Amino acid sequence: MRKVWGIGLAAVAAVGIGAGVVWTQRGALAEAAMTRVFERAMGPDALAELPDGLHVGLCGTGSPMPDPTRAGPCVAVAAGQKLFVVDSGSGSTRNLSLMNLPPPKVSAIFLTHFHSDHIADLGELMLQRWAGGASQAPVPVFGPAGVDQVVAGFQAAYALDRGYRIAHHGPAVVPPSGFGGAPRTFTAPPGKPTLVYDEGGVRVWAFAVNHSPVEPAVGYRFEYKGRSVVVSGDTGPSANLVAAAKGAEVLVHEGLAPNLVAIQRKAALGAGRANYAAIFHDILSYHTAPETAAEEARAAGVRELVFYHVIPPQPVRALEGPFLGRSRQIFGGPVRVARDGDLVSLPAGSREIRHGDLMRTFRF
């Protein structure tokens, strides 16, 4: 018995000594970890590591409601070696870097509409693309009528900062000609998707959605080498979306759970927050319940449904069940509630749909 106790005490002592060594060396260990993280961040970008095909990175799956685990709405689409961004919600530019999808690699930005939560990071994205890559020309920013006003507003807000950076770093690092964005306005009438981008085998269609009183509001369909992805943007139930998504492989759709928002509204009323209660009531009319989105996905014949722009916040995965309701039974195919950093890959020349996590390095 004494021998057993002796072995046990020795093991405890060894663990204690090991823990003590770790504690005393914690700074050096942290520096080593930081070195590895930055080597990855400054090394080959994720585009070079992805197989040829169409890939969707969720750079922001949240909404205007505060959620420490989700940035504002943002969907990155990689096609071949081109990187596109749909919307630029608060915090999403940082997520792009954390996902190793460098902002300087962005070929174009597509805006679905001009609600603040979808454009909050536009100025930062344009700035990071310019300063991080010595861009010689502004980034193209596609959007419906009003996109020129939005881009001009951000450029005006960043005008002083532009001057500081050129003076500090010099025109070789931040070429004056590359600052800001170049708006590309299009019209997407109801009933027929509009081809807004067609380069290098990548085709992007815009289609009108129902987000009244926000008009115009659009979604986008991306196609590359036989693979297809649709991003809904903000919308209520929309026959136009169903038509535009026909036969697409992945539908990335916003989702609002009325049953969970009702809990928020009840709490607001109980606390005497009439303004919040009114907002929680009003948002029901221009978003889509997950079960309705599942019906639309089934009608469109898509293969997989992915929810983003999640309302309300879901700090724990256990809320996915109440959020989805009967969505999986209605749609029948794979249904996912996306989190920041999620990756959906559609390699060229196959029917495979793969899933990954581009923020795994930063998850603890």
Q: What key phrases describe this protein's structure?
A:
8-stranded mixed β-sheet; 364 residues; 7-stranded mixed β-sheet; 2 domains; alpha/beta; Metallo-beta-lactamase, Chain A; 14 helices; globular
Describe the structure.
The protein is α/β, with parallel strands linked by helices and 364 residues long. The chain folds into two domains: 1-40; 51-362, Metallo-beta-lactamase, Chain A, CATH 3.60.15. It has 14 helices and 15 strands. It has helices spanning 2-24, 26-42, 46-49, 92-98, 116-119, 122-133, 147-157, 159-169, 239-244, 258-270, 274-282, 290-300, 320-324, 327-331; strands at residues 53-60, 74-79, 82-86, 106-110, 139-143, 181-185, 194-199, 202-208, 218-224, 227-231, 250-256, 304-311, 335-337, 342-347, 354-357. The protein has an eight-stranded mixed sheet. It has a seven-stranded mixed sheet with strand order 7-8-9-10-11-12-13. A hairpin with a 2-residue loop joins β2 and β3 (82-86). α10 runs antiparallel to α11 (274-282). The model has no long low-confidence stretch (mean pLDDT 91).
